[in-house]
From TrEMBL:
Disulfide bonds join C16-C56, C20-C51, C30-C37, C39-C72. Keywords: Disulfide bond, Glycoprotein, GPI-anchor, Heme, Iron, Lipoprotein, Membrane, Metal-binding, Secreted, Signal, Transmembrane, Transmembrane helix. PANTHER family: EXTRACELLULAR MEMBRANE PROTEIN CFEM DOMAIN-CONTAINING PROTEIN-RELATED, PTH11-LIKE INTEGRAL MEMBRANE PROTEIN (AFU_ORTHOLOGUE AFUA_5G11245). This is CFEM domain-containing protein. The keyword Signal applies. InterPro entries: Extracellular_membr_CFEM_dom, Rhodopsin_dom_fungi, SAT4-like. GO terms for molecular function: metal ion binding. The chain crosses the membrane at residues 82-100, 112-134, 174-198, 210-238, 258-279, 291-311. One of its GO terms (cellular component) is extracellular region. It is found in: Membrane; Secreted. It is a lipid-anchor; GPI-anchor; Multi-pass membrane protein. It comes from Aspergillus indologenus CBS 114.80. It comes from the Eukaryota.
Length: 405
């Protein structure tokens, strides 16, 4: 951008943007031939770009912003590779853990339960959520392979003014799909935890609490899914509203995010903390009891991720650069679902690791005192009918009944 190119530059801008840039130039002390002053003396660019957003339509604003920044040679930040990397790594870990859980059931000839079916459904929803990170990335790589041109910026995590208009719409569609499948994935994982509790803990008041939480989780999951689908009316307004050319309205997503996050964190903490007291009463050695409690407490990671996801959603709801700021909303949703599935599948690991680490995952059953040791006949029955071992020790349905002594 120099004295000969400046008129051409202004002619290429929409009239609203050209007027904004000329006004910013007139208010500055930079010469029209001083490219360095114009582009690095932030007052001109900040004034012009701010004026674009106020004086131009959304599409004119994006075009003018991209054209101005490109003329100044400003490097554009990109985090397009972060979401696919997280989706690939954590998504694969969740899938491996789910497969190990199913393998443990099959190899050890243990019956499948509701908790297994629910975690499979949660994994299916999470898989769709993870796949949302890849379509635009794959398109870019395919274009590069065919045309031998630089990869086009189709992916999430790039500044909104650098991508084609149609890709903005596509990204918002992907975001909506991801959020819709996030809701049932989350609820199904919670229900899998609760069904697992019903499997391993004996009847009593504890079960009534589990059933109550399950009912709340079902209602919460269904209502959240419906709210996500119909947060804008018409539904298409969610992905068309950015252009300013569509008509419709949306709920206050900021307020809803706070409400949903508060309920979600309360549910997560309730479900994770629920088994701590009965587990502390198990007739296990102190070392094994500590390991069991630590394994269940890893579920608190889910709550931490939920808080991080809330922060990203609030930032996205206030953002004008939605292509960049919806990236954290996508990847924290994926991370939360994947981490929850991994935590739900952790109890299968000790049974599979027992042959490799017999010292850590031995098969002795402990009683709460020397006078209350489980009879050998009952030990044998427990060993044969061990429904679902947490540490391949005493945490099966029959073993828990025996350990209550």
């Amino acid at each position: 951008m120099n004295s000969t190119l400046l008129p051409e530059f202004l002619n290429d801008l929409p009239a609203c943007a050209a007027q904004c840039f000329e006004t910013a130039m007139n208010a500055s002390s930079c010469a029209t031939t001083d490219r360095w002053c114009i582009c690095t003396g932030h007052s001109i660019l900040e004034t012009a770009l701010g004026c674009y957003s106020l004086s131009c339509t959304p599409k004119q604003n994006l075009f003018s912003t991209n054209y101005t920044r490109a003329a100044c040679g400003i490097h554009e930040e990109s985090k397009a590779s972060l979401t696919p990397a997280l989706a690939g790594s954590l998504g694969m870990l969740a899938l491996i853990m789910t497969c190990l859980r199913m393998a443990q059931r099959t190899m050890m000839k243990r019956s499948f339960g509701w908790d297994d079916g629910l975690i499979l459904m949660a994994m299916a929803c999470a898989a769709i959520l993870n796949i949302m990170a890849f379509p635009s990335k794959c398109i870019s790589l395919l274009e590069q392979a065919i045309t031998n041109k630089p990869v086009q910026k189709h992916g999430l995590g790039t500044n909104i003014w650098t991508i084609p208009f149609e890709d903005i719409t596509t990204q918002l569609k992907l975001l909506l799909i991801a959020e819709i499948f996030y809701m049932p994935a989350e609820a199904l994982t919670q229900l899998s935890f609760l069904a697992f509790y019903l499997r391993i803990f004996p009847p009593g008041n504890f079960r009534y609490i589990v059933y109550t939480l399950a009912g709340i989780s079902i209602c919460f999951g269904i209502s959240n899914t419906l709210i996500m689908i119909f947060q804008c009316l018409p539904v298409s307004y969610f992905w068309n509203s950015w252009s300013g050319e569509a008509t419709g309205h949306c709920i206050d997503i900021n307020t809803y995010s706070w409400y949903r996050a508060a309920m979600q964190i309360a549910m997560d903490l309730s479900i994770i903390a629920l088994p701590i007291y009965p587990l502390s009463k198990l007739a296990l050695s102190r070392r094994k009891k500590t390991l069991v409690l630590l394994m269940f407490c890893t579920g608190f990671l889910i709550t931490v991720v939920s808080c991080l996801r809330l922060q990203s959603l609030i930032r996205f709801s206030k953002s004008a650069n939605i292509s960049m700021d919806n990236n954290p909303a996508i990847y924290w949703s994926m991370v939360e679902c994947d981490v929850a599935i991994v935590c739900a599948c952790m109890p299968c690991l000790p049974a599979l690791l027992k042959p490799l680490l017999p010292a850590c995952f031995g098969s002795r059953y402990y009683a709460s005192s020397d006078n209350e040791r489980t009879p050998p006949v009952k030990l044998e029955r427990i060993r044969r009918k061990d429904e679902f071992s947490v540490l391949s020790t005493a945490v099966s349905e029959d073993a828990l009944m025996a350990s209550r002594g």
